[in-house]
Specification:
The structure is a homodimer. In chain A, 47% of the residues lie in helices and 14% in strands. The first copy, chain A, has helices at residues 13-21, 37-45, 56-61, 72-82, 100-105, 152-164, 175-197, 211-217, 224-232, 235-258, 261-277, and strands spanning 4-9, 28-33, 51-53, 65-68, 91-94, 114-120, 141-146, 169-172. In chain A, strand 4 (65-68), helix 4 and strand 5 form a beta-alpha-beta unit.
Chain lengths: 287, 287
């Protein structure tokens, strides 16, 4: 038995789902680490990983791949604290929704340790290992931000990982481009959802909502601590997106208030045509 | 054979789905009417209704229930043109997403004809009978706006209809309250979706989107003609909602730009807790 070791640090919603999804991945033994006794007990009982431990040193000492699945600040702290504990030649990666700050934090690693930023575009509005499931990543995008000097064998390994956990595709980009686009596709969606839920109509609208309302507001039940960190680590891009959104909403508001039906029709036709040009299949569309 | 007759006027996405969902409803014979030869041919080929006809007079002459499933202006025009062609004692209803304008339009009907406003909170971003399906209404709300003087037997019939087509519940309210809440739960969701799609990032974000983006923007591929009418018939309520939304977005933008993480955490905690207090199960949630 000469198995390689894949360490997952943090067995929350994403780490737990990743451990489950990675079962049978090549010849890796999966070791899961978490500091919460309740999480560890759940992970043991449900055999989420081959080994679970509360000891970070034990988890990473022999690991050929270490995937950091904590909140952003937890990842940055772990990199600082354990910079000298990783096995030479190993690959460290993560699952964080911002990439520039994480890639900068990983600069502290010794030269013998590779780092590839990773962001699986999956998740739910729930938290914790009890909500983890192996199918979470099916049909979603896996985004990689390798270093310019990352080992091509490590990049290839991450691509095979994406295939194994069922991702639709693997997309490589720079941390800067990732954060700029994610401010639009993910962070802004969460700001919209919480803003809609700040409306006084929220508590009286039950019985009057359809799939558009459920689809838009689902993610408002977010992990406030996690998203505070994600937003704070990408504030300039996010505020730029919000300013643009507010401008587009104002523009619709003015056409509506103006009462010119033809102008409204023309404007809606343009927007709807734009959407139709962008085909975004995913695991969660109606029908 | 002494079947009652249920006429569906307009066999588009909603009318077609309603005809399919109504199969086997009590002792009703379903007659479907549409002016489009292609729609009629499709309806005949797929046996969407027991009888299909291009002749409105034929459809409504014997009908005990007439459900108007056209765009809002089409419904208003049909009521005016056929006000004297309905069978005395019959029930006329509709499926329109605004109710005050429709209820006002139905005032033209003779005293012998009852009218109950109806809005099934279901649909997709697609149009036309070719996208209709019998399961469309399963798990959704059916909203009714009876007249103060509507026959209780007619209200009861609509409630049984809601159960037959699989609705989660039947909610009765006034047209004014319907339109005020729907501006928030439905119309505003569509304005958000098109506004997000007006962003210049739309065409470069592919590969970087997850379920929150797909959920929020799905309905942007809307029927511009239909939604121009719906928005125009409910403009004051909709612009009020948009003003409130823009205010909430601005408020988040300011807290973000201010850089106070604790203030952002507190604000997100409040919004997320609001959402968690509102349980909105539906047929289209993840998992």
């Amino acid at each position: 038995m000469n198995k390689k070791t894949f360490a997952i640090i943090g067995l929350g919603l994403i780490g737990g789902s990743m451990a489950l999804a990675l079962k049978g991945f090549e010849d890796f033994r999966i070791i899961g680490m978490d500091t919460s006794p309740a999480t560890l007990a759940f992970a043991r009982e449900h055999e989420v990983a081959d080994v679970v431990t509360p000891d970070p040193a034990e988890a990473i000492r022999e690991a050929d791949v270490v995937m950091l699945c904590m909140h952003p600040q937890g990842i940055l702290d772990f990199l600082q604290e354990h910079r000298d504990h990783f096995k030479p030649g190993c690959l460290v990666t993560d699952v964080c929704g911002v990439k520039s700050a994480i890639m900068a934090g990983a600069e502290c690693l010794p030269e013998t340790v590779d780092f590839i930023g990773c962001h699986p575009m999956a998740g739910t509005e729930f938290s914790g290992i009890q909500n983890a499931f192996a199918e979470m990543f099916q049909g979603s995008h896996l985004i990689l931000t390798p270093r310019p000097g990352s080992d091509p064998a490590h990049v290839a390994l991450m691509e095979r990982l994406g295939e194994h956990i069922g991702c639709r595709d693997v997309v490589k980009t720079t941390p800067e481009r990732h954060d700029q686009i994610l401010a639009y596709t993910s962070q802004m969606m969460h700001i919209i959802a919480v803003s809609v839920c700040d409306d006084e109509n929220l508590f009286t609208c039950k019985g009057f909502e359809g799939s558009s309302f459920r689809g838009c507001t689902r993610v408002a039940a977010l992990d406030a601590g996690l998203w505070t960190q994600l937003f704070s680590l990408n504030t300039p891009a996010l505020t730029t997106c919000l300013d643009e959104l507010i401008g587009h909403l104002q523009s619709y508001r003015e056409v509506l208030a103006g009462g010119d039906r033809q102008a409204l029709l023309d404007k809606l036709t343009v927007s709807a045509d734009r959407k139709r040009q962008v085909d975004l299949p995913g695991p969660d569309l109606l029908q």
